[in-house]
């Protein structure tokens, strides 16, 4: 992300939050759930839950679009969920778009089709047979003029298509080719979603950024349901190999930044 940051504009997260809040109140799709070794990884659901609750607090109706590997995760917070079937294609996504008529789509750590027309993890291994093609929603949204947002941290997530040429040139990875209107990058995708929530809190002057205690409790709950660390592949309280001490530091700094007005 240090390399890719050079190719992003200033205040990209703030601008994305402002654009979200300019949208008319209505349904907003959030998609997440990255398949790792038979489970959904812990990066993605935490940020999605956080942003969904923030959006709900300011008048939107968040609807989570995911697949079976995140089953039960979002019902814990009484959020609406649509489960996409792994093998189905355009028809199911066209139907769900027509049913809900969302004002925007937001992806947080969700695998998208890459430039080789595959769905692959960070090791370059295909996970196509275990990944619902939620990126089709973003292709359909583009044709319909629905604003799209993406949060990614590695290059293979929906939205990283905005930087695909840079990723190929500078990182020698096979990037996702799915583009979005507004891209947010972060070392961990959850942290990018937390930052969006922090900006919503600052702009709307309403408490929506969760405390570390709340995040830890939710992490424990989804780990109990089977979520694993995407790096270590262990069913433990960590995200992308980072211990909870780092998670606490990130949240504490975001709270401090909002509170002191330096954000």
UniProtKB/TrEMBL annotation:
It comes from Dorea hominis. PANTHER family: D-GLUTAMATE CYCLASE, MITOCHONDRIAL. Pfam families: GLUCM-like_C. InterPro entries: GLUCM_C. Coiled coil: none annotated. This is DUF4392 domain-containing protein. Residues 12-254 form the D-glutamate cyclase-like C-terminal domain.
